[in-house]
Amino acid sequence: MKAWGLVLLGLFMAGCATTQSKYIQLHPELSADQVQAIRQKAITHDLMKEAVQASLGKPQKTHGYRKDGKLMEMWVYSEFEWHPYESVLFQEGRVVGWNFPKSVKRKLDEGSPEQLLTALPEPEVMKQE
């Protein structure tokens, strides 16, 4: 009887492993900074989209477009005024910027992303530490 209890406890504990922990275990190539960011549900430069999803979950909205022939995609978290707003910009599947002001999201919602390109700084400038 005790053996079954231990088996059930083991299954329960395995089910409790976080998405972050599972992703980190499956990706030993992650740098120490990337592992720390994922564990803290944060963003760091050069994370892949899958790592951001493991860290923050699925975005509530995505906007994709091309800039200078490169695929750009912005993920938006939190559509609610009472909840912290988060945005992440990817270039070719890797994080190049985050924490844009809500005005960027509004411009994306209002029209074509191409209109917004002149308002966004280049990815190297957008890196947040």
Could you say what the CATH topology is called? Beta-lactamase Inhibitory Protein, Chain:B, domain 1
In the CATH scheme, the class would be Alpha Beta
Radius of gyration: 18 Å
Q: Which strands sit side by side, in order, in the main sheet?
A: 1-2-3-4
Write the H/E string, N to C.
HHHHEEEEHHH
Strand content: 15-25%
| Number of discrete helical segments | 7
Oligomer: single chain
CATH architecture: 2-Layer Sandwich
Classify the helix fraction into a percent range: 40-55%
Q: What about the largest sheet?
A: 4 strands, antiparallel
Distance between the first and last residues' Cα: 53 Å
Number of domains: 1
Q: Total number of β-strand segments? A: 4
What is the global morphology? Answer: globular
Parts with pLDDT < 50 across at least 5 consecutive residues: 11-16, 121-129
Task: Assign the structural class, choosing from mainly alpha, mainly beta, alpha/beta, alpha+beta, or little secondary structure.
Answer: alpha+beta
**Would you tell me the overall average pLDDT?**
74
Word description of this protein:
This protein has 129 residues and is of the alpha+beta class. It has one domain (17-123): Beta-lactamase Inhibitory Protein, Chain:B, domain 1, CATH 3.30.1450. The chain is built from seven helices and four strands; from the N terminus they run ααααββββααα. It has a four-stranded antiparallel β-sheet with strand order 1-2-3-4. A hairpin with a 2-residue loop joins β3 and β4. The longest helix has 14 residues, at 2-15.
